Amino acid sequence: MGQKFQYDESGGTFFYFLLSFLALILIPVTIFYWPRKKKRDPEEEKRLCHCPPCLVKREHQKNAEPWRGTKNAITKIVIIFGWIMLVLLAYKVSQFDYEMANFDPYEILKISPGAGQAEIKKAYRKLSLILHPDKDTGNEKEFMKLSKAYQALTDDEARKNWEKYGNPDGPGAMSFGIALPSWIVEKENSVWVLGLYALVFMVALPIVVGTWWYRSIKFTGDQVLLDTTQIYYYFFHKTPNMALKRVIMILAASLEFDKKHNSEIEERQSDNDEVPQLIKKLPNLNEKNKERPLCHLYSIKARAIIHAHLSRIPLNPDTLEKDRRYIIGKCPYLIQEQVNCVNQLILLAYARRIKTLPNIETIENCMKLCPMIVQGLWEFKSPLLQLPYVNDDNLKYFMSKKRQIKTLQQYAQLKSEDRRALLRSLSDDEYENVMKVLGKMPHLDFQITVEVMDDENPTEVTAGAIVTVTVSLERKDMATLFDDNEVQQDFEEVVEHQEEGAADGDQLEIIKRPAWLKQKQKRGGGKKSKKVTTNNSKPPPVKPAAIIAKKVEDSPSSIKAKPKPEDDSADDSGPEESSDTNQEKSSGDESTAQKSIPEDDDQEWERFRKIHEREKSLEGKMKSSHPVHCPHFSHDKQEYWWTYICDRKSRTLLTAPYHVTGLVEHETVHLKFTAPIWPGVYSFTVCLKSDSYIGFDQQKDFKLDVKEAPAEITKHPQWEFEDSEEENPLDKADQESEYTTDEDLPEDED
């Protein structure tokens, strides 16, 4: 049996190629691009804020894409048309298979399988008169099948071939059809075929790739124009200590707001009248600045819109309000780029590549601007204005003679009737919205641990060592604060009820106060002490209970530490004494168990914990945490945070700001820096700043007791090299520590 390759003359194999190609494209396109209408859960609707600014924002988001309905309809029509073509092609291919695989001569001649030769000839004559091509009812294709069927039943050799191979002609040659029509390789069509190839691969494809590349090289990884980044570098290098108003000016000068660099910007004739009128309402705008591009019209317009946004001045909904939504929506990404630029300049200053070192206040002002933009508030405004329905008229109730409520945390810790009394001017539905928003705001537990990883003694810091500060963040809703107060109130009511019952002669039941409630009261009472976790107070590593129990059982010291059976007289003691005795026994057993665990196992477990945390930190960053209540911001926002280490005394930044973007419940961040090269006690600060809310920043101070580095190993004679040049005294001056120890400070600063 031979083999034969041929182009598809009849077009049969081309349908196979077309069917597979269309299915390969149509299935993923349907999965990813079929328009889906999001069905909102009724419970989710109840959890949303229904204050007027939030309702207006959701309406704007719904109408942000006017062509969305038409686009979805066209997408559906195209996908449905593609599936119809796929079904038709599949049906046509199935017919090809049916014709080739179901050749039955008896069925074609319409006779029974046991018919004789006379009956076969009679059926053939009858059908040939109908299907012959010369007749009006003729069909050449059907007549060829009829002739093959007659031959298969009358000729002995053809009958054997049909019974053996399923074909009266025998096995024949195996044919491989190329799923391309033959006219492609014909000589007279070669010019057109080559022209088509040249048009697709030499013209269209390079143009598409070049256009994409030309557009992509204009932007950074965060989709910020490179020219905008150059503007940031120039001004932050020029002004190392930049005030907040100056940061706003640099932000407004971003080329994303210029029509020449961004085609999405709209320039209207009405701007010539509306922008000057808006500038008159805004003090300290500094619109007469002559620096370029701060003096350009697009920069002044963007600056005026940002100031109006922070002052919550209403704008024309048909003109400047549209510009405000677009400009404010771009600001968080641009502010993050500003933070990155200042950090890069600080690194260049440390590397002696630039002379001026940007001040830490500059990068903190950039971070401070982000929550101001998101919430639409100036920094000097009360954080309570972030709640819905709360305005300047309501704030007078928060600043009464009895209490001074300045933060959202203080308001959340009040009793429920006190919280309601402060907002007594609101209706029940409005107050419910306020509590709904307040309860979803973040309440962070911020802890730090200082250590030197991969060292024999991780708690001892030597000069020049790599110090790792582990920042542990635990995020809870603000609702936990006023929930705890309600539990406390319920507990007090129960105690009062029991005391009344005891006064009436009823038996007083002993109700133990919850342990967590005791701890909370202890923290609240007495002097306020700042809790600082230093390298000398490192908490012991947490170990699984099963491993500890097994090691305690196996160790011989644990057998000796088992308590002896006591007399029955011990059972006669009161419940308090027995509980105290049990606590002493358990604490003694735990201390004995801790001593019984070998030190090698402690080190091994600590090493395992560090490796696990490092692997977790290397995973990709999430970009989803918790939604932010920001009715004055253009888009939906997620909670993000910055954390870094700085030296407040020398006003320097020790670590690059780490952007925490996936804090759902727990997050661990490792910040590393090099310890000072001179021994002494240094004070540093770990800062945590929110990019979404005002008044939620935290910081923790820690002291670093830097010891002198151990003596170097004695050099072998073959390792000793003579210095050809004497050490420059200027180099010694450069090696002095840029940090300030506590001993160097004046007495009033201590």
TrEMBL record:
Biased composition (Basic residues): 519-531
InterPro entries: C2_domain_sf, DnaJ_domain, Ig_E-set, J_dom_sf, Sec63-dom
Start-end of Acidic residues biased regions: 568-579, 736-750
Region span, Disordered: 496-605, 714-750
Annotated membrane topology: Multi-pass membrane protein
Any Pfam family matching the protein: DnaJ
Alphabetical list of CDD domains matching this protein: DnaJ
Record bears the keyword Signal: no
GO cellular component: Sec62/Sec63 complex
Segments passing through the bilayer: 14-34, 73-91, 191-214
SUPFAM superfamilies attached to this UniProt entry: Chaperone J-domain, E set domains, Sec63 N-terminal domain-like
Annotated SMART domains: DnaJ, Sec63
PANTHER family linked: SEC63 DOMAIN-CONTAINING, TRANSLOCATION PROTEIN SEC63 HOMOLOG
Protein name: J domain-containing protein
